[in-house]
User: Fold these one by one.
Assistant:
Number 1:
Amino acid sequence: MSLKLYFHPLSSFCQKAMIALYENDTPFEGEIVDLMSEEGRAAYLKLWPIGKMPILRDEARNRMIPETSIIIEYLQRFYPGRTVFVPDDVEQALHVRLRDRFFDLYVNDPMQKIVGDKLRPEGQKDPAGVDRAKSLLEVSYGLIDKEMATKTWACGEDFSMADCAAAPSLFYADKVHPFRDQYQHLTAYFDRLLQRPSYARALREAEPFMKLFPG
Ligand SMILES: N[C@@H](CCC(=O)N[C@@H](CS)C(=O)NCC(=O)O)C(=O)O
């Protein structure tokens, strides 16, 4: 098999890449990375010294691809399928990339800040940083809610890379700073994401690890 994904099923960014792979039934081998163990981390740092998951190895093309948005664009280009993650049309493509960045930077990142803080030992917590992250999530929720009043998926009628970014980030964001009930269109969108078979599968595979999620 040409493609190997180094990942952890619980990780939101790894789920983003898995959704893209599952959308098009792209064959790949998964290797679970344990960044919590010293050995696992050291081995992973040899592959990608930045130490962020996931990373995609393409044996056929002798490439290592980090960064989920680049992984998805790579899949689109070299392993295309029925779901088109980034449209050919230049303006539509920019819109998808913007929405993808939005979910990564303004939902996933603040969510990770809050989760990361829960894992910090007493005395090393950052309440001001957590407050900032929650404020940012509020702004993001409001913007997504408005946006989703007229759309099925993040960029319109077609599922795209932006939806791959949205599903896992919203799932965990709702756990640490709930949006359900307060944001009607966002909630309806999130419910559609939960029904999407590619994400439902990623979520099912994360289930056995969910007890590791703090809080
Ligand atoms: N910009 C990166 C972010 C990846 C990322 O933050 N991954 C998290 C897991 S969800 C991670 O590896 N965290 C481990 C760490 O920071 O030590 C991407 O899109 O791939």
Number 2:
Amino acid sequence: MPVYCPSMASATILVVDDEQLIRWSLSNRLTEEGYRVLEAETAADAIRLARDGVDLVLLDYRLPDADGMTVLKQIKETTPETLVILLTAHSSVSMAVEAMRNGAYHYANKPFNLDEIVLLVEKALETTTLRREVRSLRASQAQPYTLDRIIGTDDAVVKMRALLKKVATGPGSTVLLTGESGTGKDLAAKVIHYASPRASKPFMNITCSALPETLLESELFGHERGAFTGADRQKHGLLESADGGTVFLDEIGEMVPLLQAKLLRFLEERAFKRVGGSADIHVDVRVIAATNRDLDEEVRKGKFRSDLFYRLNVVPIVLPPLRQRPKDIPRLVNFYVDLYNGEFRKRIQRVTPAAMERLSSYGWPGNIRELRNAVERAMLLAEGDELTVEDFPVRAGQTSADTVELPATGIDLEQWERSFVIQALDRSGWNQTKAAALLGVNRDQIRYRIEKFKLEKPVSSA
Ligand SMILES: Nc1ncnc2c1ncn2[C@@H]1O[C@H](COP(=O)(O)OP(=O)(O)OP(=O)(O)O)[C@@H](O)[C@H]1O
Ligand SMILES: [Mg+2]
């Protein structure tokens, strides 16, 4: 049974042929079928019209100013979504193969039967409509935080996924996620929440390093009216707002001692007081904490309370750095290629073996975030239908962070950190998001460092 599909009937078709009679007969018939039809006599006209966006091109192979294959390539490069059906008088297998390889949807031999062409056009447009529908359905029903969103078959990842599942479905025990920047702590926290019975309740997160102490306290625990200057009304904190759900405390290692004590009490008694309040408030919240520091070490140095550490460390989950699981790199690369194909409406079919090799042997100090950014950038700039070595420029120090050699005389790490932060801010004109990307950290972490090093935006770059 034919299905009426408005987007199909109103599709725009470009008919390219230098023979007027052929253009006329195709155009006539397709208009009758309800399509909008444009005509071009030359390759140059065809390319110009296609650039404005048409759904399908019926393209004659032999044109006065260029051959159809050239036009096909050009169209596929500028508007990869456009469907092209090549019309040729000399049917040859090699030509058909070449056409398909260059992205043609199909080809038809001349002289053709109009009914056949109409059927072919209908089928082709159905695939675009379907493709678009599937894409938007996927986007709208996306479950971005399901367990299978965590990609990897390396043993460490398989175990981690199993642990996340167990934790999610179990009682609301506290979880401590540790791992370098970009290894997926945020993602893991969300996966736990959305796979747990708490999924329909709020997931709230806060980066402990992003706010000054007093602000963080009132964000977390709320405050009573008049608790401090400016507190002109009572405010619920994150813990209260997340009742029944999950609170994700990112960069817990940066939390100051006073708040560590208050958080400890909450974890032990499931109760807290708002700032300036005297009543205990009880809530049912699962706490997930994350850090890229070695908390054990912080405890030893006396910077982090040991009792809080043990309370948080009920279920420790360690996210492995990417360089320890290079076999997962191709899988991750392909995942992001698919993702950005959808987002950017590109049709990258593959990453060349040489490019994949380069990606697999790189050390990825910024872990999966850095890999995602590299693929995103390559996809934005790529012109053909594959990603090659050239699409992944060699970076300064294209080596694993492990292999950057420490000078024999040692360095002052803080000084280096400060210098890199300043350079990144300078280079990005003090755009914190861009500076963060240059350093493979997030914006909160840049903000934290701006405060830590007391950096100020120079007047000249304002
Ligand atoms: N195993 C994975 N599979 C697929 N994508 C992942 C995986 N782990 C992380 N990602 C993606 O990598 C990016 C960085 O992950 P995320 O923000 O969770 O890292 P993080 O550990 O919280 O980093 P930071 O310490 O800098 O906050 C995100 O886009 C995330 O979706
Ligand atoms: Mg994070």
